[in-house]
Every structure is written in structure tokens, then in C-alpha cells.
Amino acid sequence: WVNHLEDREGQRWSQLDLVGWPAKRWRPGDSVMFHFDLPIASEAPPGPYIIRVGQYEYISPEKIENIPVLDIAGNPADYAVALPIPTQ
Fold first, then answer.
1. What is the pLDDT of the chain when averaged over all its residues?
2. How far apart, in Å, are the Cα atoms of 39 and each of 13, 14, 62, 69?
3. For the purposes of burial, counting CB atoms within 10 Å of the CB of 68, is it exposed (0-12), middle (13-18) or buried (19 or more)?
4. Alpha carbon distance 47, 6 (integer Å)
5. Percent of the chain scoring above 70 in pLDDT
6. How far apart are alpha carbons 73 and 88 in whole angstroms?
7. 17 forms bridges with which residues in the sheet?
8. How buried is residue 5: exposed, middle or buried, by Cβ count under 10 Å (0-12/13-18/19+)?
9. pLDDT digits (tens, 9 = 90+) for 22-43
10. Of the candidates 67, 61, 71, 64, which has an alpha carbon nearest to the alpha carbon of residue 80?
11. For 39-64, what is the mean pLDDT?
């Protein structure tokens, strides 16, 4: 899993990549949930932020490949889903 916390300009203020349950092992009807704590840099501005969440696969020890997010037509659209983080 890849988790990136970014501001409006795309500046990354936190990143956490962790091993999770591989998507190729998921089956129809599975519910897959993960919890990640992203440490935020002390010099980070107050926001707003988005979090980008995606997956990648180890093809070989030298090669990592993103699992693309697909658009409604099934075409690769991005490397991750962008989720806005509400601010108060």
C-alpha cells in the first residue's frame, strides 16, 4: 500500500508504504480494511490536504509496479485514489 498526504500544490508532507493483503488474493464479497498512521511533518502548513491511497506490486527485487486505478471505462487513470481530508 502507498499512502501520500499532499497539499493543494501536490507537495508531499507525509508518506507511508506498507505491506497489506495482496489484491490478487481478494475474492468477490471480501471486505478489506487497513489502518495506517501517517506521521505529519512538524513544519507542515495547516491544510487543506488530500490523501492518495494506492497499491503496488513487487514484480522482482529490482522492479515495483503500481496497480493502476481504473476509470469508469476500465482505463488506467492514476496511481492512487485521491481522497480529500475535511478541515474545520
1. 86
2. 9, 6, 27, 25
3. middle
4. 9
5. 98
6. 35
7. 2
8. buried
9. 777 888 898 888 888 888 888 8
10. 67
11. 86
Query: Which three three-digit cell numbers place residue 52?
Result: 492518495
Comparing 34 with 74, the larger pLDDT belongs to 74
Binned at pLDDT 50, 70 and 90, residue 76 comes out as very high
**What is the C-alpha separation between 75 and 85, in angstroms, rounded?**
26
Alpha-carbon span 49 to 3, nearest angstrom: 13
The contacts of residue 23 (CB under 8 Å, 6+ apart) are 55, 67
- C-alpha cell belonging to residue 14: 507525509
Distance CA 78, CA 55 (A): 11
This prediction has a pTM of 0.75
